[in-house]
Backbone:
């Protein structure tokens, strides 16, 4: 039933570039693209950065995947077809035949079973980051070599989409049996590209897997991911045509510059992004245990004006609540402006904020604002917020920390107010609202509060029978979050990707984790 | 080693001139450096009156504006006036530069004098410690000190950054001061002072320290320049001063990295400011050395 | 001489040991945790048991003494362990970057030497003339311009005028010299300028000192060039400080190109340094610090020996 939500999610991504008319794909060529960071190891189940997905995903297949051109529609990858029982407890997948691993061995249902068991119930010494998301799986059966059946403990509205997760690489059961950590240092998948080399700190190379099960694919001879940490160096490389794309996203200024200098040779893709920066208040520290103070800080922020201004220099643009604006379960603009801090009359909101601070006894509030030392978009949003708070007489002292220290500070509660992020590979309240449910239930609630009312609303939206009912609970959840203002969204991200025109068959989506298997990508040259 | 310049034999009786005048006449380059430093000082101290804009004021109407009559050196990604930020940045540069070199040189000089004066085992241990610091990669030292000390502000200055910049100076200063002090220690009058039963601290303060003042001053000037450079590098790496403060190194990093192709003035002018400041301190420091103690090598 | 050499060699031991203790303590004083960073940085939610297990696998749950002895034991038997971030052997990680760092350092050294020695000598010979002033300004400016900023300006100019940037990935010089040089010449120029400035200044003051020596003064009647020729023997000894400066700068460049490498996207030791320190990759940072410090100490040692060989007073001093 709940799967209806997932499948029924209307396409929302407002893609700037309309799908091009069908054109005969050409074979050949090596795709060179830039990646701003580098994967620490090669295990899909133990990684969580896009910097891992971009070079590694082309080596693997997953059970399902998102339909590149029609997000959020899901389609088969290794699965040819699937059925879901009426009660939503049994998922049966029919697998493609004739699929081979890069070492020539045959792919069977046992590989799917072994891989998913490694995800939801990892053996000793194996790291599985997304264990929790799959905890509803009770067993996996393999009636024959090309059928796999997942039994769930309870119906889960997010389950089908979760089978399309780009992180759920299917490994060889035999290799896992020999060494459960085989994937950590080895690449062996069924994907369209085989692994050639990883020059640490420099680049990553893959070449076409001639035995790939989709006949005639992939089109590319290979790909080369070049690791470029410095933003300027990355954009320079793109401008000079040294790389044809960088798939995470660019700032608007970089886009403008690229268009100005090589505009006739590049395509610009834009989409709202399923990521937001959120201000999180440490509710264990005074005066942030006082809802009035937190709400005042949220009220002081001119989201609508800020979104417009910041969108010129940073990769943020959309005003939204706890769900991505434009997503069909998210509130409309009329609903949104009624939430505290989202109104359009900023003078009124600021007066209210000052009043609240005075009432709480901290009219000249001063605090340390902990931010991440990543220039885009953390610095511009941080500078913006400090300026906004300054306008209600609040002094925020900016502290920008290296990721490790930043994370240590937020996780251990060694901060006052912080700029946190919430970013998932798809729009799905069950994943995205984890940030807001009680700290005792969620490891990513850094505001350190317990709020049973929120937990109850969260459960209700998971169990809701209809979409309308779910939306009702989601609105109530959102209202409560923004009133209490433990953790409040600032401005949602806006993804801009610039690709050279000869790069074809790649599709934009609201997530930089999706559509990176490169199966359908080709070069027109 | 002593602070007496080797006198050339000359038959003209030199006119007694004020030392500043004498310096200006014999060291034209140094004087030019000094002038630049003075301008920086004035700009830094009177920044709120000199700067045309508030360095922190965001202006979303004038983001990334090219140099013009309104904004002489253009604006940055937040519409902040680059010229005003450079003027306020002079404050940061001078404060960080001077404080860190005063701390670094003073600690180094004390260590050097103590080590030379006591000699023997103390000297040996101190020397090895200085060797350790000297051979330790500066960047790791700085990274570690900045993060271990954490954000620690005194009068709006990042003390962790200042300490991080000061530490690498200590062994260098200690070495030079030690060798100057060693030479003095061998002088007969120190022996005499000891024989007369003067206390260690009295001998050190009355007899040795005055003689190491020249190398101390020379190094202080030279290290102010190095401190400004190191501060720029650390801020570039995101370890130094943080947004939204106005600081030159910071102006080169962060959002400038995103925009320097679109708005080259964002990096050109702060870079020129850093170079000019360091250039001035080096010119002055060099001339000061030629004037005070031409044999000193750094 | 042998006694002196052994004495100097023995002195290296406490220094290296001190560096080892210092880096060990420093790293562990820095807040944050590599396991949490790797597993959670991009917003995963992981249960504490997984994190604890991973920490145990890396030996981070052991006492500090235990960790230190493990490391020391490995160091003395030549086993540097594996990176806590990538799991690859430390030696492999360093080796794959050393070549590039060495080449940039060598190129910068050559550039610096070729520029510095003639310029410094010239400045000294024409002390206080306009030639001297120009060379001094050139040298002091070299000290003043931040190398990484100069690098940014190089790239800006290349990009704006030719829409071209230096290659992004490293090609060894023996594979394709043209490709190699077109990547590395720019960073070498950017850091070489500063480097040559340092060396020029040292050359100038050294030559000045030689010219001041008494026996040179006897040749006063002759012109400066003749004086230089007369002082050839003195020069050889006097060039030692210049050699020292060049050697120490070289040692610094091997691991010190941190910021410049960022600007040019060079995959060298400096970049590795920053990455590993910010991640808290203890094994990597420890090995890197020992390598760089060891190199520095060795160069110092070599310079000292050279001094001693040329000046017997030092040996017995």
Residues:
């Amino acid at each position: 039933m709940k799967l209806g939500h997932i499948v029924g999610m209307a396409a929302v991504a407002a893609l700037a570039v309309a799908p091009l008319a069908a054109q005969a794909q050409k074979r050949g060529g090596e795709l060179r693209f830039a990646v701003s960071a580098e994967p620490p190891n090669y295990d899909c189940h133990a990684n969580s950065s896009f910097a891992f997905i971009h070079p590694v995903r082309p080596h693997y297949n997953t059970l399902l995947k998102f339909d590149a051109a029609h997000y959020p529609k899901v389609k088969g990858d290794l699965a040819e077809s699937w059925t879901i029982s009426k009660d939503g407890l049994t998922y049966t997948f029919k697998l493609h035949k004739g699929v081979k691993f890069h070492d020539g061995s045959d792919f069977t249902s046992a590989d799917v079973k072994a891989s998913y068991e490694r995800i939801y119930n990892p053996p000793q010494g194996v790291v599985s980051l997304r264990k929790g998301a799959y905890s509803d799986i009770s067993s996996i059966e393999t009636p024959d070599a090309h059928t796999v059946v997942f039994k769930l403990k309870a119906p889960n509205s997010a389950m089908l989409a979760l089978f399309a997760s780009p992180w759920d690489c299917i490994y060889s059961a035999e290799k896992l049996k020999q060494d459960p950590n085989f994937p950590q240092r080895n690449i062996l998948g069924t994907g369209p590209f085989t692994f050639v080399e990883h020059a640490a700190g420099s680049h990553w190379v893959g070449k076409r897997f001639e035995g790939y099960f989709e006949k005639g694919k992939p089109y590319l001879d290979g790909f080369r991911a070049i690791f470029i940490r410095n933003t300027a160096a990355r954009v320079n490389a793109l401008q000079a045509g040294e790389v044809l794309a960088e798939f995470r996203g660019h700032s608007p200024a970089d886009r403008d510059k690229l268009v100005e200098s090589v505009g006739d040779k590049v395509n610009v893709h834009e989409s709202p992004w399923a990521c937001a920066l959120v201000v999180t208040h440490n509710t264990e520290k005074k005066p942030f245990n006082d809802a009035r103070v937190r709400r005042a800080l949220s009220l002081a922020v001119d989201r609508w004006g800020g979104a417009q201004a910041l969108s010129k220099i940073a990769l943020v643009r959309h005003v939204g609540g706890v769900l991505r604006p434009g997503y069909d379960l998210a509130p409309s603009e009329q609903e949104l402006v009624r939430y505290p801090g989202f109104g359009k009359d900023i003078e009124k909101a600021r007066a209210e904020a000052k009043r609240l601070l005075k009432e709480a006894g901290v009219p000249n509030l001063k605090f340390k604002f902990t931010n991440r030392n990543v220039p885009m978009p953390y610095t511009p949003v941080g500078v913006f917020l400090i300026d906004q708070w300054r306008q209600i007489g609040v002094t925020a002292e900016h502290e920008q920390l290296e990721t490790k220290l930043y994370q240590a500070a937020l996780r251990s509660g060694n901060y006052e107010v912080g700029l946190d992020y919430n970013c998932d590979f798809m729009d799905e309240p069950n994943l995205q609202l984890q940030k807001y449910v009680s700290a005792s239930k969620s490891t990513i609630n850094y505001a350190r509060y317990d709020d049973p009312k929120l937990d109850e609303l969260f459960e209700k939206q998971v169990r809701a029978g209809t979409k309308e009912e779910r939306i009702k609970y989601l609105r109530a959840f959102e209202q409560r979050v923004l009133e209490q203002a433990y953790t409040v969204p600032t401005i949602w991200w806006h993804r801009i990707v610039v690709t050279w025109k000869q790069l074809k068959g790649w599709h934009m989506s609201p997530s930089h984790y999706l559509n990176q298997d490169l199966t359908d990508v080709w070069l027109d040259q | 080693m002593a602070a007496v310049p080797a006198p050339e034999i000359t038959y003209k009786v030199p006119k007694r001139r004020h030392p500043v005048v004498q310096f200006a006449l014999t060291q034209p380059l140094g004087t030019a450096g000094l002038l630049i430093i003075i301008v920086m000082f004035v700009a830094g101290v009177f920044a709120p009156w000199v700067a045309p804009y508030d360095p922190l004021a965001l202006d979303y109407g004038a983001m990334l504006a090219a140099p013009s009559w309104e904004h002489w050196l253009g604006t940055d990604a937040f519409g902040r006036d680059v010229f005003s930020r450079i003027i306020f940045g002079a404050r940061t540069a001078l404060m960080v530069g001077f404080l860190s070199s005063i701390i670094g040189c003073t600690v180094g000089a004390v260590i050097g004098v103590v080590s030379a004066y006591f000699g023997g085992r103390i000297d040996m241990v101190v020397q090895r410690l200085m060797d350790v610091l000297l051979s330790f990669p500066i960047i790791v030292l700085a990274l570690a000190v900045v993060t271990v000390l954490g954000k620690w502000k005194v009068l709006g200055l990042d003390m962790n950054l200042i300490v991080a910049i000061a530490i690498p100076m200590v062994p260098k200063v200690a070495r030079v001061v030690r060798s100057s002090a060693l030479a003095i220690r061998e002088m007969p009058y120190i022996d005499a002072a000891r024989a007369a039963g003067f206390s260690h601290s009295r001998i050190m303060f009355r007899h040795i320290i005055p003689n190491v003042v020249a190398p101390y001053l020379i190094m202080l000037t030279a290290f102010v320049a190095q401190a400004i450079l190191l501060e720029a590098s650390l801020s570039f790496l995101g370890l130094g001063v943080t947004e939204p403060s106005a600081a030159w190194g910071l102006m080169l990093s962060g959002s400038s990295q995103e925009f320097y192709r679109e708005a080259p003035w964002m990096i050109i002018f702060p870079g020129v400011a850093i170079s000019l400041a360091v250039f001035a301190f080096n010119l002055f420091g060099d001339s000061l050395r030629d004037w005070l103690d031409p044999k000193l090598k750094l | 001489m042998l006694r002196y050499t052994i004495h100097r060699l023995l002195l290296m031991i406490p220094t290296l040991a001190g560096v080892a203790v210092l880096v060990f303590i420093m790293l562990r004083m820095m807040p944050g945790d590599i396991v949490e960073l790797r597993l959670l940085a991009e917003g995963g939610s992981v249960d504490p048991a997984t994190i604890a297990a991973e920490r145990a696998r890396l030996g981070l749950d052991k006492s500090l003494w235990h960790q230190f002895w493990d490391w020391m034991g490995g160091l003395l038997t030549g086993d540097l362990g594996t990176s806590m971030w990538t799991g690859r052997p430390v030696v492999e990680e360093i080796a794959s970057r050393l070549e590039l760092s060495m080449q940039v350092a060598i190129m910068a050294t050559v550039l610096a030497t070729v520029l510095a020695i003639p310029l410094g000598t010239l400045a000294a010979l024409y002390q206080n003339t306009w030639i001297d002033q120009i060379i001094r300004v050139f040298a002091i400016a070299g000290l003043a311009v931040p190398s990484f900023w100069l690098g940014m300006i190089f790239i800006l100019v290349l990009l704006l005028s030719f829409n071209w940037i230096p290659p992004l990935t490293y090609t060894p010089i023996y594979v394709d010299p043209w490709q190699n040089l077109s990547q590395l010449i720019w960073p070498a120029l950017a850091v070489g300028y500063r480097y040559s400035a340092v060396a020029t200044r040292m050359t100038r003051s050294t030559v000045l000192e030689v010219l001041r020596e008494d026996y040179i003064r006897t040749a006063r009647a002759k012109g400066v060039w003749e004086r230089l020729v007369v002082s050839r023997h003195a020069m050889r000894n006097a060039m030692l400080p210049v050699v020292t400066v060049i050697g120490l700068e070289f040692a610094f460049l091997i691991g010190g190109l941190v910021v410049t490498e960022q600007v040019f996207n060079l995959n060298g030791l400096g970049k590795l340094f920053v990455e590993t320190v910010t991640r808290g990759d203890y094994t990597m940072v420890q090995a890197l610090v020992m390598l760089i410090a060891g190199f520095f100490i060795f160069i110092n040692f070599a310079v000292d020996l050279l001094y001693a060989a040329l000046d017997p007073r030092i040996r017995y001093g």
